[in-house]
Amino acid sequence: MNTNIRASLFTNLKDYIFIILGLVMYGIGFTAFILPHEIVIGGLSGVGTLVYFASGGFIPVAATQYACNLILLAFAYRLVGKTFVLRTIFGATVISLSIGVFESIFMRLEHPLIPDTSMSAILGAILCGVGIGVVFVHNGSSGGTDIVAAMVSKVSNVSIGRTMIFTDMLIVVCSIFLPFNGDMQERLTERVPIIVYGWVVSFIIAYMCDMIINTNRQATQFIIFSSKWSEIADRINQEAHRGVTVLDAEGWYSKQQIKVLMVWCRKIESVTIFRIVKSIDEKAFITQANVNGVYGKGFDTMKVRMKKSV
Questions:
Q1: How far from 151 is each of 142, 154, 228, CA to CA, in Å?
Q2: Model's pTM, two decimal places?
Q3: Looking at residue 151, what DSSP letter applies?
Q4: DSSP readout, 194-247?
Q5: What DSSP character marks residue 248?
Q6: Neighbours of 254 (CB within 10 A)
Q7: Would residue 298 be called left, alpha or beta, if left means φ above 0 and alpha means ψ between -120 and 50 degrees?
Q8: I want to staple 160 with a disulfide (CB 3.0 to 4.6 A). Which of 46, 101, 149, 217 is the partner?
Q9: Crossing angle, helix 160-173 and helix 43-54, to 10 degrees?
Q10: 3-state secondary structure of 263
Q11: Quick check: 149 pLDDT over 70?
Q12: pLDDT of residue 310
């Protein structure tokens, strides 16, 4: 088997494994810590929650979520393309199975795992956010409002992020219409805090998701000024296994020609670069900057869809 083909298969397999792990983490966070407190969140999980409590627990969240995903994908097929649909079907299937399995476990307990609503909601939101972040990092999709946003972006200038925020907020607000024994004032007193919890949970999920995505891509850029630049460059190549770019520069005050080293590395490799420079030249002048994305050999691969030539 060709080496490139083998590497591609390994990468795809690794992606699918992490997508499954991320979706399982989401399923645990949602069913163990959010659903037992009757908190409605954004996305199709929120729609499934509305149907679940409106039906008195008769219709599972996973069933509603999966059915809605298939309906949305049927409408979206012509707009978003076959690749997006197939990838989303896989993610939607795994997340529905995950929620279905864990829902049957945690919703049968007499009491929530964490009785305190605030702590339970925060922990659940963190798990859900990390899970979705892992899925996105590995080019997966869980469906839901992703499909709505993708369709809107094809026919409108409204941003995907704004579409998802509006859709999720509307789903959360709909929890005020769930069955309730009491007058309107009692309903508002009971439901408004739950709506606030839903918004907070949705925000934390989005924030944690962004954190995971950005942390995965984050790199560090070094610019090093030293008279021992050659030795430092060799050591960085040999010990840190990172490339070094040598730039010609001139000190404006001294009017002397100098060499400047530019290095990019992963954030966790920063300490190694500092140790190498310090061991060679303690008087070296170094600047360090965080970089959200470095693409190319040794870093991330640019994953963008090129426009087809007419």
A1: 15, 5, 56
A2: 0.72
A3: H
A4: HHHHHHHHHHHHHHHHHHHHHHHH-EEEEEEE-TTHHHHHHHIIIII---EEEE
A5: E
A6: 8
A7: left
A8: 149
A9: 10
A10: strand
A11: no
A12: 44
